[in-house]
């Protein structure tokens, strides 16, 4: 049903009915399992210390699994897909003046991990949006305070004067120059050759400066004198952790014109003040500074937040987002429109499950039928008003200039405006204010995105998930296993900071957002708790089998089929959902493997880090994901090989589990050969066999490979010793 005036559709997925039926059946099966646990615990046959320990561990593990299953039902209850109809916008937006202003925030934090050229490319890709340029402003926050990044952005402003008219005249879709020239389907006309040359010129300059690590005088004199003055701010006491605010207008709409004499959008560089003694709250702090600086300069009602490596892949995305914000029936409590995180350069089998299909594609559709998706931190268009308390309450900021209703009348380079932006970007500005607690992006969790979205939903705001077939944005993802699990380890710490706080979705959330939303949020917040059941299932049945103890029912026992049903049911449903979300069988297999790997690495170590933070052993930190990879690594990744390479302690539980599972499987087979009934061991054999198949890349990396990505011998050795120690310890206890 598509009316001529509707701005968007919403279609409930037909699988919601079978989902609910299956939930009923599955919950009956879980109850049966818990009943069995209760009876074995209450009437143990011949209790030993070890049998009690096993029964309790299995019960605790299964209880957590059941709780996580319950949480996941929130996404299955009422999945809804939504599509925008931008063609119907014309009725509302005829002239450029009719469009609401749009402020784009791009965050970068470390020029050594986030190449300035990438930041510049991201900025260019949004500067070239198909949107009235007088209404468009781009603010780049640089927490690394790098003059190299500033230089790259100056070059982008210059090159943009050619690039923007070129894209618009030729209806280019890839408006990130690097992707456009690398896409292979560019037809090289004279005009294209010329623009390519100009891009190469800019690229060489930026890369040259980055390689040298400083901006030579020849480069300084080549940029307009007024702009070159900015580099003078990098004085001798200037460090990335201690420096005054640097705010530079690099391109100004109305003043700067492109090669076709149209106005350029605003481009502003912002590096907030830093002092060693003031907390800066990582990315949330940076975003709040951008909220204030942009309020003083333009105060656009709509804000787009982007990570520095998230390029626009579709110039018409703002029109799609407007379909939601311009809809009068829905806009009053709409806080944000979330586009999925999609990645370029993923290998065919997606060995690290970088797609995060569940997090970025499947679950948000589930949330869409409730109050809307969680906030992913990037690719999100916000209603500025949402940062100032709930839809029907409003907290006025101290300075009236920061209020979402304030209308800016001066030019962005006006002296008074510039002075105020420096003030609101200073360290002390937030002291004694509600920034980070009741207004703006929220502090207190390393997953500021998830946490901010959660708090907005608690205040009564709604959100929408919009997933057009052409990806709206594309970003990069880590391609070495250590970078991958380091990234998710930060997420684990951040999630525990929410689940174990007074704002836990289970308590605070249930009170303010309804049970289904609260359980959906709990699915993530309590995600690190998977590490308990998975660790139990990765070690306990295996070690028990090695010392001749059965812990599952015999294969001939009807209870055995209950276990099979629970396992196949959960995995089967996951597989169906994955494939329906345009996944392949191979990618699904790797996705479930990475889930286990993440749980045994990121979740375990993240939990330790969280505890360490609380005991004051180490300081909380946001470890920025590395975005620079060498060619060798890229080649191995493209071939689909896991990259171990570095002796990371996080690999230890992984390889220890791999060793124990292999030993158990062989031990079990040996017992069967010696005449023990398979009937008794089948359950444990299946679990160990599953472990072995999943551990295949680990065995390869330990034994078969000799390239740079192999498992460091040190880790293999430590894991062997550890596996032996665990085995000895458990078998000693079992004899007591
Ligand atoms: O002190 C900081 C730390 C990070 N960043 C920026 O935050 C973004 C995300 O950092 P990244 O290292 O790429 O983390 P990821 O884990 O890849 O990012 C995901 O997870 C983050 C929360 O942990 C979210 O903020 C991101 O939007 C989301 O894409 C990057 O643009 C950084 O430059 C800052 O601006 N200031
Ligand atoms: Mn990232």
From TrEMBL:
Localization annotation: Endomembrane system
InterPro entries: Cellulose_synth, Nucleotide-diphossugar_trans
Entry keyword annotation includes Nuclease: no
GO-annotated biological processes: cell wall organization; cellulose biosynthetic process
Keywords: Cell wall biogenesis/degradation, Glycosyltransferase, Membrane, Transferase, Transmembrane, Transmembrane helix
Domain of life: Eukaryota
Listed GO MF terms: cellulose synthase (UDP-forming) activity
Gene Ontology CC entries for this record: endomembrane system; membrane
Transmembrane segments: 21-38, 50-70, 521-540, 560-580, 651-670, 682-703, 715-734
SUPFAM superfamilies linked to this entry: Nucleotide-diphospho-sugar transferases
Positions annotated to bind Mn(2+): 283, 307
Active site, renumbered: 143, 449
Lipid bilayer topology: Multi-pass membrane protein
Residues holding UDP-alpha-D-glucose: 113-114, 143
UniProt-recorded name of the protein: Cellulose synthase like G3
């Amino acid at each position: 049903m598509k009316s001529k005036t509707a701005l968007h559709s919403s279609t409930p997925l037909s699988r919601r009915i079978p989902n609910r039926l299956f939930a009923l059946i599955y919950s009956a099966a879980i109850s049966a399992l818990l009943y069995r646990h209760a009876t074995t615990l209450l009437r143990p046959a011949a209790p030993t210390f070890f049998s009690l320990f096993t029964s309790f561990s299995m019960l605790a593990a299964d209880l957590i699994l059941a709780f996580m299953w319950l949480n996941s039902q929130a996404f299955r209850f009422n999945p809804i897909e939504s599509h925008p109809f931008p063609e119907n916008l014309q009725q509302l937006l005829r002239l450029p003046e009719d469009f609401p202003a749009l402020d784009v925030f791009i965050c970068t934090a470390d020029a050594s991990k986030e190449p300035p050229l990438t930041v510049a490319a991201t900025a260019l890709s949004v500067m070239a949006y198909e949107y009235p340029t007088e209404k468009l402003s781009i603010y780049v926050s640089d927490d690394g305070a790098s003059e190299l990044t500033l230089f790259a952005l100056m070059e982008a402003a210059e090159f943009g004067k050619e690039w923007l008219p070129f894209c618009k005249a030729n209806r280019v879709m890839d408006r990130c120059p690097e992707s456009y020239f690398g896409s292979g389907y560019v037809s090289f006309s004279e005009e294209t050759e010329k623009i390519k040359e100009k891009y190469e010129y800019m690229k060489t300059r930026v890369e040259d400066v980055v390689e040298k690590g400083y901006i030579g005088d020849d480069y300084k004199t080549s940029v307009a004198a007024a702009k070159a003055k900015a580099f003078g701010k990098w004085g001798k006491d200037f460090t990335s952790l201690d420096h005054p605010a640097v705010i530079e207008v690099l391109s100004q709409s109305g003043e700067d014109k492109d090669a076709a004499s149209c106005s350029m959008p605003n481009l502003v560089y912002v590096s907030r003040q830093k002092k060693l003694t003031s907390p800066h709250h990582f990315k949330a702090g940076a975003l709040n500074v951008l909220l204030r600086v942009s309020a003083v300069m333009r105060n656009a009602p709509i804000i787009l937040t982007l990570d520095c490596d998230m390029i626009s892949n579709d110039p018409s995305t703002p029109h799609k987002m407007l379909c939601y914000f311009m809809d009068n029936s829905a806009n009053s409590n709409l806080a944000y429109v979330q586009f999925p995180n999609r990645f370029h350069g993923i290998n065919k089998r997606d060995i690290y499950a970088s797609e995060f299909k569940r997090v970025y594609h499947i679950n948000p559709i589930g949330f869409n039928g409730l109050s809307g998706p969680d906030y992913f931190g990037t690719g999100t268009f916000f209603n500025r008003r949402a940062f100032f308390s709930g839809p029907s309450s409003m907290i006025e900021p101290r300075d009236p200039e920061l209020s979402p209703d304030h209308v800016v009348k001066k030019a962005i380079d006006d002296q008074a405006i510039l002075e105020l932006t420096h003030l609101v970007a200073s360290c002390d500005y937030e002291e004694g204010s509600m920034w980070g607690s009741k207004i703006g992006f929220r502090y207190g969790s390393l997953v500021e995105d998830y946490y901010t979205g959660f708090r907005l939903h608690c205040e009564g705001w709604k959100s929408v998930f919009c997933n057009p077939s052409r990806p709206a944005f594309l970003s990069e993802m880590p391609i070495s296993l250590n970078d991958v699990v380091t990234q998710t380890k930060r997420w684990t710490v951040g999630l525990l900071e929410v689940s174990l706080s007074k704002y836990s979705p289970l308590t605070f959330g249930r009170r303010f957002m309804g049970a289904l939303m609260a359980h959906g949020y709990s699915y993530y917040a309590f995600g690190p708790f998977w590490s308990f059941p998975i660790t139990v299932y990765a070690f306990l049945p295996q070690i028990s089998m090695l010392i001749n103890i059965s812990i599952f029912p015999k294969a001939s026992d009807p209870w055995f089929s209950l276990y099979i049903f629970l396992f196949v049911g959960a995995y089967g449903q996951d597989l169906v959902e994955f494939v329906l979300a345009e996944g392949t069988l191979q990618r699904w297999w790797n996705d479930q493997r990475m889930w286990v790997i993440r749980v045994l690495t990121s979740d375990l170590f993240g939990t330790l880090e969280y505890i360490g933070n609380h005991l004051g052993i180490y300081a909380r930190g946001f470890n920025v994901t590395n975005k620079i990879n060498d060619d060798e690594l890229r080649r191995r990744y493209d071939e689909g090989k896991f990259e171990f390479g570095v002796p990371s302690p996080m690999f230890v539980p992984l390889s220890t589990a791999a060793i124990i599972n292999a030993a158990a499987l062989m031990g079990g087979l040996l017992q069967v050969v010696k005449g023990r009934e398979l009937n008794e061991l089948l359950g444990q054999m299946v679990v160990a066999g599953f472990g072995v198949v999943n551990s295949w890349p680990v065995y390869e990396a330990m034994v078969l490979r000799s390239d740079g990505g192999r498992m460091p011998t040190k880790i293999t050795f430590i894991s062997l010793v550890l596996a032996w120690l665990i085995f000895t310890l458990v078998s000693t206890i079992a004899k007591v």
